[in-house]
Amino acid sequence: MNEIISIIIIPVLTGLLLFFVPEKLRTFKAIVSLLISILIFYLTIIIYRADVTAFKLNEIFGRSGINVFGLDILQAARKYLTFNSDNLSKLIILFISIFAVLILLYSIAYIKAGRVKNYYPYFLISLGCSLGAVLSDNLLLFLVFWGILGITLYKLISGRDEESSATAKKTLILIGASDSIMIIGIAIIWRITGTLNISSLSIPTVNTIQVIAFLALLIGSFTKAGAFPFHTWVPDYAKNASASSTAYLPASLDKLLGIYFLARITTKIFILNEWLTFLLLLIGAITIIVAVMMALVQHNYKRLLGYHAVSQVGYMIIGFGLGSMIGVAAGLFHLINNAIYKSGLFLSAGCVEYRTGKEEIDDLGGLSKTMPVTFIASLVFALSISGVPPFNGFASKWMIYQGIIDFGNGAAIANKLWVVWLGLAVLGSALTLASFVKFIGGIFLSRRRTEFESVREVPPLMYLPMVVLALLCVVFGVAATNLIVPKLFMPVSGKFQFTGFWDSTFVSFLVIISFVLGILIYLASGIKKFRIDDSFIGGEKTQDQSSYPAPEYYKTISEFGFFSWMYKKAEEKWFDIYDLAKQFVLWVSHQFSEAHTGVLPGYILWVFAGLIIMLLIMI
Predict the structure, then answer these.
(1) pTM metric for this prediction
(2) Nearest alpha-carbon partner for 449 in 378, 346, 532, 357
(3) How many C-alpha atoms does 446 have within 13 Å on its Cβ side?
(4) b vs e for 38-76, b when ≥16 Cβ sit within 10 Å of the residue's Cβ?
(5) What does the pLDDT look like over 570-612, one tens digit per residue?
(6) Residue 371 and residue 355 in contact, taking contact as beta carbons nearer than 8 Å
(7) β-bridge pairing 270-271 and 203-204
């Protein structure tokens, strides 16, 4: 199918060509990139509506293939260059292309000179490789596209200072290490099955080697998506990368790809045993709570959003861990919902940074009047991620809750603990709402500082993508039961019946009625007639000068018993797998350096010891 090859090759080749265009022509590069992304969006719609599934690359160019020195290149590579556009792939590539168009539109006004070098070439290469990874039916071909995305993720951090450079290096090392582990899993799959075609695999996890293969691929999925304990690069990336880069990669593409691969390995490549199901549910619950607890105490609003990007992954993991049709549909639905409102939140953060130059909540306040569109969009995104009806986050979380309750009918240990999974998932939503009260209140609703009196709304090119994403939050919430889930997600998971009486349109109607009644009661009761006066403290006027930063209300959490210990250890990077690995490598290096004393007999002993070890391995 020519469209499938086109959506991979066109953005990659265009991105490579844009490297030769000078940076001073960034507006030209932006317009070309936007036009290419619109073309890709059009082609993905064609693919989404088509019936073609698996095919090989040489089928497009004819049976003769491409001959080089008498060797048919495509014929030799045909078993690797295979693609598959099933319902899951079509769903993911459709939303990848949607986010690409919206974020590129935002970037035209947001990306300034010198912010990110070669931003648009790397953006298009990321787009093409993301689509290639999702459509690949061969694990080696998938790994090629997957690995390139690790490089573009690294290059889309500006590296403007030592901290951002360290973040870029950390991201590259973590993603690269997980890719290396994935290679081990893919090698095991080849050894035990003799094939790497995803559509041909269905491996039971009944022995140790099969479980190791599953865990190796799971680590790659978790690292890309940002799940515990491989999540620590996400908050750092969110803080140090540009808002558009974060909205494009960690918030949308990496989540879509990481959870897409999780869907593949849990529903297609492997058949999970009950202990692996328990492991997924446990990691999902831990990811929700640990990340949201870290988000609660953040003062930097970009790191706060980064931790919430991690927390939401936990809900998706739980959905796929349930293994039921409603669980898979809920996991996919929450994946798309999260990409929508999480990208919107990062774009909103970029708008605030664009106009104020501030990244700390303590330094902001009162921007709702001067930036009304950004405020309203941010409020919609905050309510959505917090699971407040009638927005989309509530719809997908409610489906996950329903799936957990149905899961409790099973007899395995994971099934018997359904109350634990449900309680932690609901608690995570409550804590998410609490942290976004700080986010919205501290940035938009507290007292406006005098230095921000002249702040105005961002250009239309920046707020239009946020408006579209906010509207999607509403539509995906209101029409979830009757339209969105049946049309988009049931074709992937299979048809199922919702538990109990629940209709998203009816719930939305009740919410609207309650708001209308509340407004009518407010207007009719005369409550609006109240007196505003200054505080009296020794006759001094203090109302206009006093303020209390929003994050200070959450300071008690970090000082309370066990939480105080946990936050202290988190600051010391006890839970950062990257830092722990770095410290271990440095320790081993130090031990080797201590052993090299410069005495010749000592070196001779090292040589003989190495030879003996090699002989033992060979035997």
Answers:
(1) 0.88
(2) 357
(3) 23
(4) ebbbebbbebbeeeeeebbbbeeeeeebeeeeeeeebee
(5) 777 777 787 888 788 777 777 777 766 667 777 777 788 888 8
(6) yes
(7) parallel
